[in-house]
Amino acid sequence: MNAPLIDRYPLAFKLYPYARSADQDVATPARHPVVIVGGGPVGLAAALDLGLRGQPVVVLDDHEGVGQGSRAICFAKRTLEIAHRLGAGADMLAKGVVWQKGRVFHDRDEIFDFDLLPEAGHRCPAFINLQQPHFERFLHEAIERANADGAQIDVRGKNRVDAMQADHTGALLDVMTPEGGYQIHADWLIACDGARSPVRDMMGLGFEGRVFEDNFLIADVKMTADFPTERWFWFEPWFKSGSSALLHKQPDDIWRIDFQLGWDIDREKELKPENVRARVDAMLGADVKYELDWCSIYTFQCRRMEKFRHGRVLFVGDSAHQVSPFGARGANSGVQDADNLAWKLDMVLRGQAPESLMDTYCQERVAAAEENILNSTRATDFLTPKSSVSKAFRDAVLSLAQDFEFARSLINSGRLSVPCVYDAHALNGEDALAGPARTRPGAPCPDAPLGNGFLLDQLGPDFTILSIGAGLEGTCDVAGQILRVVAVTEDEAKGPIAERYLGDAASAVYLIRPDQHVVGRWPSADVAKIAVALDRATGRVAHAA
Amino acid sequence: MPLNTKANLGDADGFYESLVGAHDGLTAAQSEALNARLILLLANHIGDLAVLRDAITKARQNIPK
């Protein structure tokens, strides 16, 4: 292509200005174990995770930082837990707006309200609202801290991949910079380059799914208002600014307002400030003072690639799957992809697991993507009925909901992101404990208070054994591999941790993956059984049929 | 429990009269709304998704052309 490098969008934060790399001055292309294309939230999370595990990582981004616009604003508990493990969570929690309550209105009437997390004993809240540029900035700051401690994460701004050749040894990339092109070789290439993924296009891979014929206008407005910190959603709002509307609080007195505009619209006209203001004025009242901070119109699709692994090229986040925004399942699922991928690729690169372990990245995250697409498609069909009978049922639900409790459960303004349970997947081990369903093999570990902190903080980045009243402590030699034990004594085994991990059992031993999903669980410590489960969870021994 | 397709209405004629009579004086759109509300109320009462799916399948079969 060799087109000049021109910014496609203005930056909110210039985080990684272009700097000449030594790779640009060598005769033969430099070889890197991992190259990540795209420095968005997913690419930065993957880079940070791999870098903290000691892998040298190169990140190529065609800009020099984060684009403007709040975009993905809702970050879910699981994402925050991952960010916490990566050293970026505390900043996000400090800056983000915590919310857990929502209200749904039809016309003028409140028809439904919800509370996402009545359960106590978690470090992270159900959700925070945080502008995407801040989310990315905090990840990048954590990368800089990690590099100061010896990590080798090289984020290269204004480095655009223009061509690539992939084979079984990885991929050779043609990279364009302001000072001309160069080539590098990636043993593994991770494509985090978004829904319009150039890497996917260069490889000629498909991205099939459903297009939804609707447009949504985002208006971020700055105002000091005394609305509560809740998600407010209107179907057919009385103020007529859209066929639905959403109001949500962000940090710094910014409020996200979404209006559903319909299919046949004139984008340029709708984005004119006076037309945006007319809709906002109708909603807030003409006497409310505010500034327009950012506006955008989006359409959406629900689709995914058939496979997320193509040899040594791995697709992660929006490049692999795209959902409607209802349910906050885009950026959240992308960060969870990175969480699933990083430990596996690290083990493969160290020779501790076979390359086939990367197939389980594809299997597990395709399952998660299917779940997200299903939920997001259902929400979209409720919000944008595609036929007159679909609209009749939707309206019937809304009208019944005012009088009858049952109909409120049918109202779908987005089923909010929760992590996927990898039920019946190849890496899962034995479930020999009559324990709670929520901590079965494949499930992400729920947090619980432990000592002066929280359980998840103690699980660490490697395979870990959780022993609850089962006598293990310190470390455990599992067929030559030394695993750390998080020991919960019988005296400590009460309250949330007992409810979540013991149920009616008297004691338990859990084997937990580096991404904090449960491998297997047993009523007592049997190292031989843990060894079998560990071999399976690292792909060294295939699942017995 | 499978979908019961044997006669189960205590007063079949009385039910039919009430069902049709409920639509008296309604426009086609209002009738569609009434039917949708009625289906949702009854579906919730039945509750069992397997039974409901069976009913949806049987209702969908042999739709007149």
In short:
The complex is a heterodimer of chains A (545) and B (65). With 545 residues, chain A is of the alpha+beta class.
CATH class of the largest domain in chain A: Alpha Beta
CATH-derived architecture of the largest domain in chain A? 3-Layer(bba) Sandwich
CATH topology of the largest domain in chain A: FAD/NAD(P)-binding domain
User: What proportion of the residues of chain A form beta strands (DSSP E)?
Assistant: 25-35%
Distance between the termini of chain B: 32 Å
Architecture overview:
The complex is a heterodimer of chains A (545) and B (65). Chain A is of the alpha+beta class and 545 residues long. Chain A folds into 3 domains: 11-93 and 128-206 and 303-371, FAD/NAD(P)-binding domain, CATH 3.50.50.60; 209-301, D-Amino Acid Oxidase, Chain A, domain 2, CATH 3.30.9; 437-537, Glutaredoxin, CATH 3.40.30.120. Chain A is built from 14 helices and 28 strands. Chain B is mainly alpha-helical. Chain B has a domain at 26-65. Helices cover 63% and strands 0% of the residues of chain B. Chain B contains 3 helices and no strands. Chain B has helices at residues 12-21, 28-46, 49-60. Chain B is globular, with a radius of gyration of 14 Å. The model of chain B has no long low-confidence stretch (mean pLDDT 96). The interface between A and B is small, with 13 and 10 residues.
Question: Topology of this protein?
Answer:
The complex is a heterodimer of chains A (545) and B (65).
Chain A: E1 11-14, E2 30-37, H1 41-52, E3 57-60, E4 65-67, E5 74-76, H2 77-85, H3 89-95, E6 97-99, E7 101-106, E8 109-115, E9 127-129, H4 132-148, E10 153-156, E11 160-167, E12 170-177, E13 180-191, H5 198-202, E14 208-222, E15 231-235, E16 244-250, E17 254-262, H6 267-270, H7 273-284, E18 291-304, E19 309-310, E20 313-315, E21 321-322, H8 331-349, H9 357-383, H10 388-401, H11 405-408, E22 449-450, E23 453-454, H12 455-459, E24 464-468, E25 475-478, E26 481-488, H13 496-501, E27 508-512, E28 518-522, H14 527-537
Parallel strand pairs in A: 2-3, 2-13, 3-10, 7-15, 13-20, 24-26
Antiparallel strand pairs in A: 1-4, 5-9, 6-9, 7-8, 11-12, 12-13, 14-17, 14-18, 15-16, 16-17, 18-21, 19-20, 22-23, 24-27, 25-26, 27-28
Helix pairs in contact in A: 1-4, 1-8, 2-3, 8-9
Chain B: H1 12-21, H2 28-46, H3 49-60
